[in-house]
Design a protein that fits this description.
With 190 residues, the protein is of the alpha+beta class. It has helices at 2-25, 44-52, 54-60, 153-157, 159-183, and strands spanning 33-40, 64-71, 82-87, 96-106, 110-118, 125-136, 139-150. A hairpin with an 8-residue loop joins β3 (82-87) and β4. The radius of gyration is 20 Å and the shape is elongated.
């Protein structure tokens, strides 16, 4: 009789507990929020150049295979500029197409984006991201924050895992940014 109870716990109890915890995790504070930071041994203007130019994005944002402007900047202003990226990694079954709009641009200080995924509605999301830079004695601190809202049922249920993976990805992206900016001769802008 004990073996029937054990089999019942293994086949029904544990999976039910896991599903229940996933459902509850969707309602935790801070869901979909990611933040990361890094110090780069270069002036803020050099770092900002790499962050704010879509054509440089493919060099430091992991998984980006294409970047194309959808609309050029208007009257010398970059706010409102639109571009599209194609991003994929080993964990994705198909590439993700992202429509990106520049929402804020304060040279050397702040760069904001709104990102909308296109394609599969079950994995769709909207993300608001911001890079804040502060410089002290030739060293620039880059603070990155993103708030993601998942629209599809699948992505909402697995949000805790997606957010954890995103946190790692964004940190790796900042580390690649640091390596590229610090490898470039000081004051060299592309």
């Amino acid at each position: 009789m004990k073996w029937i109870i054990r089999i019942g716990i293994l086949t029904v109890g544990i999976p039910s507990l896991a599903i229940g915890l996933l459902v509850l995790a969707r309602f935790r504070p801070g869901r979909g929020h990611v933040s990361s930071e890094i110090d780069i041994k270069r002036p803020a203007v050099d770092v900002f150049n790499w962050i704010s130019k879509p054509e440089l994005m493919g060099q430091w944002v992991g998984g980006v295979s294409q970047v194309a402007r959808s609309s050029p900047p208007q009257d010398g202003e970059n706010v409102g500029e639109r571009f599209r990226t194609v991003e994929s990694d080993a964990e994705q079954s198909s590439p993700a197409t992202l429509d990106i709009v520049v929402t804020e641009l304060v040279p050397g200080l702040r760069f904001g984006l709104q990102i909308e995924s296109t394609g599969n509605p079950e994995t769709s999301f909207t993300e608001v991201a911001e890079y804040n830079l502060s410089e002290s004695r030739g060293m620039t601190r880059v603070d990155f924050e993103a708030q993601t809202t998942y629209h599809g049922k699948v992505s909402r249920y697995f949000e805790p895992f997606i957010t954890a993976a995103s946190r790692k990805k964004f940190q790796h992206d900042l580390e690649r940014l640091k390596a590229l900016v610090e490898a470039e001769p000081a004051g060299n802008r592309q």
